[in-house]
Design a protein that fits this description.
The structure holds two protein chains of two kinds. Chain A contains eleven helices and twelve strands. By secondary structure, chain A is α/β, with parallel strands linked by helices. Chain B is of the alpha/beta class. Chain B has a domain of 84 residues. Classes of the chains: A alpha/beta, B alpha/beta.
């Protein structure tokens, strides 16, 4: 896997299109970390795109590069037709009101010294939306929708809420500017399963209600499958496979996706026999392997995998894989 | 009092650990926090027990109570018998004879648990010299063998490296090697794979399982993840609000869950076999405040199946009709007419109710 190519990109009502995104970080005098290495994908209006992969695969960097929090080294990020990488700072700020982000650690993503309702109201104050009374009314109604008592939020600071509640507050803050796209970076990984389910259901409800488009970044495949319409699997800065979430789990075509699916501990002792596991860990992105970046750990790898990087090919039904030896036979497209 | 256990006195089969009515309370400004509030169970030699619960259920405090790793502010009562000997409340000086050689622990975060300024080798060799009285040459050879046991490539080279030079998975293997160094009979693994990627998690859990078999060691696996315990334990204890609420052999538990809490936890996990956008069942609210726990069943305020009796009276731990080794604490368990009646309503309302 670990391939390039754009065969998987679509026409239609595309909200976000990321083209050949590269993010490199300098490391010492001669080395660079190749965190994202030529990734392309798109998100249609109203769709939830899941991005899944192990730590170091570049999924969070991709999310940050879309927002231009981390400047991409090359490539374009086109949001509703505008290339965010080419905008001036003030235009970028304006554009970012339409893209919001929710982070993994809900407690540290809120200012500990401020009352939480003020934190949620901040974006409205910064952009001078409506009168003070209107702002408070809007903030209160959004807080109620995410299940937080506005009165309490007006009086309390983040440490007085649980992790799940802080995540709801972060979601409320992301919603106040009425964004088009929300990028959720591991929003439920720090939560207990019972609370995780509450937050996932909440995101689904809000998505319907506000007509949101979501990018959901996580390492937990079952969580990603639950919330996503389409899933992109990343490995060491590259895309391996893109498909509708049911199809991806139904017939994983990339050996790496297959390993990820098989590695998930199943809460059923009758089924919990170890499936395909792989040895080793992802290699360093400082000196990524040649050819397909997954080849050193891949059970199916041969010569071509170490020499030539695979590109995205269709295996039908909007399912694409970047692999020389996919587990599902590619279809030839005219 | 001496607690040095002779090798010949070790339990090679039968009960290794027996805890009875263990209570661990902490004095705080807000009042007494009843973190563990009367837990009883026993564990056989060579068996793996999973302790499952949400954050704040008391699972970590319980394992630290058994290990004797609590601050002096903890107020302890009850009994912890290890290999027939009472060890609850022993001080660090006395416990030191047990740590490493009889019981040891693998923690969640391998970066924080290893000394960043000390080479890997020294961190493994030191306990071998101190606990087992090995000379240096012998200890180095043993350390290499241990690293090989936990599948670390090039062990000779690793001994001279610092923790930051290793990946997260490798560091966790080093932690396991250190924990195994003195041949403990009981290994605590407290969320050992939570900080790791899924592919590495599978490797580490398998490694712990293999070492358990090879060494006839007992393992207590503390986790919030029912998926992790399902494949890697013989028995499971579910904790809630400082209490043991259900305990059974693993297969029995998954086949015949009795506690609505366990069932609800199960149902809140997104499952790969379900189609995407499947509505998840949630547990509303959050775990109880352990300064003022609810007077009846501690789960009652969050339980969709609770009735008046649950709020008023705390249910005792009773034996299940499905297995004599299966215990649960509930007035209206899964399968009872009261539960089923309510469950039909809940399942038909999925997608309407849910988040709180």
């Amino acid at each position: 896997m670990a391939g390039t190519g754009t065969a998987h990109l679509r026409d239609g009502d595309v909200v976000l299109r990321v083209d050949d995104l590269v993010v490199e970080f300098p490391m010492g005098r001669h080395a660079t970390v190749s965190a994202v290495a030529g990734v392309s994908f798109d998100v249609l209006r109203g769709e939830t795109l899941g991005i899944v992969g192990e730590s170091g695969c570049g999924k969070s960097t991709t999310g940050r590069a879309i927002m231009q929090i981390t400047a991409p080294t090359s490539g374009t990020v086109s949001f509703e037709g505008t290339d965010l990488t080419s905008l001036s700072y003030s235009d970028l700020r304006e554009a970012r009101t339409k893209i919001q982000m929710i982070f993994q650690d809900p407690i540290s993503s809120l200012n500990p010294r401020r009352k939480v309702r003020d934190s949620v109201k901040d974006p409205l104050d910064i952009w001078q939306r409506g009168s003070e009374a209107q702002r408070i009314e809007l903030v209160n109604s959004i807080l109620e929708q995410v299940g937080i008592d506005p009165e309490r939020a007006a009086e309390s600071r983040p440490h007085q809420f649980s992790g799940g509640q802080c995540q709801r507050i972060s979601i409320a803050r992301a919603l106040v500017l009425d964004p088009t796209l929300i990028i959720c970076d591991e929003p439920v990984s720090a939560l207990d399963v019972s609370v995780q389910a509450q937050v996932l259901n909440l995101l689904e409800d809000l998505k319907q209600q506000y007509g949101l488009t979501l990018i959901f970044i996580a390492h937990d495949l079952a969580v990603v499958k639950n919330i996503s319409d389409r899933v992109a699997v990343m490995y060491l800065g590259k895309l391996c496979e893109v498909a509708s979430s049911d199809d991806l789990y139904g017939r994983p075509a990339h050996p790496y996706t297959n390993v990820l699916v098989e590695s998930i501990p199943i809460p059923d002792p009758e089924l919990a026999v170890a499936g395909t596991t792989i040895t080793g860990e992802p290699p360093s992105p400082v000196n990524p392997p040649s050819g397909c970046r997954f080849h050193p750990r891949c059970p199916y790898a041969d010569d071509i995998c170490s020499r030539t990087e695979p590109t995205m090919r269709s295996i039908g039904d909007g399912h694409f894989v970047a692999c020389h030896h996919p587990l599902v036979t590619p279809v030839s497209i005219a | 009092m001496t607690v040095r256990l002779q090798t010949e006195g070790r339990v090679s089969e039968g009960t290794l650990l027996e805890i009875a009515d263990v209570k661990t309370h902490f004095r705080t400004e807000r009042g007494l926090v009843r973190a563990v509030d009367g837990v009883t169970f026993s564990l056989e030699r060579g068996k793996a027990l999973g302790i499952v619960g949400e954050s704040g259920s008391g699972k970590t405090v319980l394992s630290r109570t058994i290990m004797g790793l609590l601050p002096s502010t903890a107020v302890l009562s009850g009994s912890v018998r290890f290999a027939g000997q009472e060890i609850l409340g022993l001080d660090a000086r006395q416990m030191r004879h047990l740590w490493g050689s009889e019981m040891s622990m693998v923690f969640q975060n391998p970066m924080v648990s290893l000394n960043p300024l000390m080479k890997i080798g020294k961190q493994i060799i030191e306990p071998l010299q101190i606990h087992l009285g090995m000379d240096k040459t012998n200890a180095v050879a043993t350390a290499e063998r241990l690293l090989r046991d936990v599948r670390i490539p090039e062990p000779e080279k690793r001994l001279g490296q610092f923790p930051h030079e290793l990946s997260g998975g490798m560091r966790q293997r080093v932690m396991i090697a250190i924990a195994l160094a003195c041949g403990p009979t009981l290994l605590f693994a407290d969320e050992p794979t939570t900080a790791l990627d899924v592919t590495v998690q599978a490797q580490i859990l398998e490694l712990i399982g293999e070492q358990r078999k090879d060494r006839n060691m007992s393992v207590i696996l503390v986790t919030h993840d029912l998926g992790v315990v399902a494949g890697h334990t013989d028995e499971i204890a579910v904790m809630y609000g400082g209490r043991l609420v259900e305990k059974a052999p693993t297969r029995e538990l998954f086949a015949n869950m009795k506690m609505p809490y366990t069932k609800s936890l199960m149902r809140s996990i997104p499952k790969l076999e379900d189609p995407s956008h499947t509505r998840l069942l949630t547990i509303p609210g959050r775990p109880p405040d352990l300064v003022n726990p609810p007077k009846g069943c501690r789960f009652a305020p969050r339980c969709a199946y609770a009735r008046e009796k649950c709020v008023q009276h705390e249910p005792p731990l009773i034996v299940s009709d499905t297995s004599s080794e299966h215990f649960y604490a509930c007035w209206y368990p899964v399968g009872s007419p009261e539960f089923e009646e309510r469950d039909v309503e809940i399942m038909t309302n999925v997608g309407v109710g849910g988040s709180a």
